Amino acid sequence: MDERLVELTGQEHGIIIDLAYAGADNLSGQAIYATARCLLRREAETCLRRAVRFAALCGTRIKVFDAYRPPAAQARLWQCVPDPRYVAALGTGSNHSRGVALDVTLVDAGGQDLDMGTRFDTMAEASHLLAEGHSPLVQRNRFLLLGIMKQAGFLELDEEWWHFELPGARSFPVLEDRRVRLESG
């Protein structure tokens, strides 16, 4: 299977990139990526381009927190949160490490994140897509994001309002960082 990934850029893709695991502002409290690159398989990048168009129709933009995640970074996340509801177990492999999953939110016209009730990578019941106890505004924002991403061709993960992946994600192999090749966007 093809192991080429497309590099996402804000200018080329019309997105905001804020790679959470490239710095310390994440659940681990440290940078887990050796290099800060936002990468996806071509199939997922095509769906993301559709999502960007749909988000624009709603007056919003997509912010990307994570995309391709090298298996070594996945192992570091597992050390921080060894809970398969939120972080793929090492033997299973993450769909992020397959290049077909991404973590996103929506921002308004002023660049402010829409209120989703929890911050990205809060590994708790409150982050579940259908968690109770959130305001109607939070529920609306979560469903707006869900609708945009599903219409673009992604599937959701019920435990994380921010996580979306291609259907059949497990059919793609895990990509070791050293074997990844880039293709032009």
Throw out a few tags for this protein.
Muramoyl-pentapeptide Carboxypeptidase, domain 2; 4 helices; five-stranded mixed beta sheet; 185 residues; 25% helix; single chain; three-stranded mixed beta sheet; alpha/beta; 18% strand
What does this structure look like?
The protein is 25% helix and 18% strand. Strand 6 (155-157) and strand 7 form a beta hairpin. The protein has a five-stranded mixed beta sheet with strand order 2-4-5-7-6, with helices on one face. The protein has one domain: Muramoyl-pentapeptide Carboxypeptidase, domain 2. The chain is an alpha/beta fold and 185 residues long. The protein is built from four helices and eight strands, in the order βαββαβαβαβββ. Helix 2 (42-57) crosses helix 4 (136-152).
Residue ranges: pLDDT <50 for 5 or more in a row? none
Q: Give the % helix.
A: 25-40%
What is the count of helical runs? 4
List how many beta strands DSSP finds: 8
As a whole number of angstroms, the C-alpha radius of gyration is: 15 Å
Summarize model confidence as the mean pLDDT. Answer: 92
Distance between the termini: 19 Å
CATH architecture title: 2-Layer Sandwich
Whole-number tally of structural domains: 1
Q: Which band does the percent of strand residues land in? A: 15-25%
Main beta-sheet annotation: 5 strands, mixed
**Spatial order of the strands in the main sheet?**
2-4-5-7-6
Which structural class do the helices and strands define? alpha/beta
**Shape call:** globular
Enter the CATH topology name. Answer: Muramoyl-pentapeptide Carboxypeptidase, domain 2
Order of helices and strands: EHEEHEHEHEEE
- What is the class in the CATH system? Alpha Beta
